[in-house]
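Predict the 3D structure for this chain.
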Amino acid sequence: MPGVSRARRLRTINGANPPSPAVRGLKGVVLFVACALVLTPFLAVIATSLADQAQIAKAGGYVLWPENPTLDAYRAIFRGGVVTRATLVSIGITLVGSGLSVVVTALLAYSLSRPGSWGHRPILLLVLFTMFFNAGMIPNYLLIKELGLIDSYWSLILPGLTSAFQIIIVRAFFMEVPKEIIDAARIDGASELQILTRIMLPLSKAVIAVVALFNAVSYWSAFFNAVLYINSTEKWPLQLVLRTYVIDNTALGAADLPGEVMPPQQSLQMAILVVSLIPICLVYPFLQRHFAKGVVIGAVKG
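Done. Predicted structure below.
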């Protein structure tokens, strides 16, 4: 079949006819519309954060293309000090929480993936129990209070340190490692910790990246625990500052910038939102290639 591409010949041999130009065009239109629906809100947020008062008033609240872009809103929120401090708090909580979450999840998942480990089945049932039953907000608050963690950064880290879902995914991944490899390592004198760190973890980079991404997004986006457990405003994470300012308009104010004209409230809100989105948007592309692989392997093979 001269003039026919190899891929098309293979589809014809396998009995699958290539889609017609009309079908391909329809798929392109649907994909373009879906991308536009996803990207338009992000573009509106960025454009509004760069717009001035006149253009925001003219557009009725949200701007899709700033005519005279200005960085006044970003200068204001960072000079005020509140957003800068909250950003550093969120970064610290996310880094520490995500790192500890990966360690705790890997250790527990590895122990539960070894059938002969001590307390294997009762602990596994206890982990599964937490997927369906939750103590509730008041018992959790009383527990944090009895542990002396009120108004402590640890109250934002420890409650979400791991989850049954993540443990099950990592455990399923570990169980897929051939038993012969582990037996050979034991014959060579490797301890359980050495097997985990030198064999299991290097073979499970994909699922570890998924766990790290899940926890990083969770810690970065969380604000409700801060509402419950944090009393000092200087310990607020960025998401709580954003929520408080968007809803109550109290996190920033003219008192933070004496003698200066504040940018429009809408621009300040969108600027804080952009600052809260940037870290995750920067990290996600580097972990995205592991994301689908890790979830599929852990969920389907397990």
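The two ends are 45 Å apart (CA to CA).
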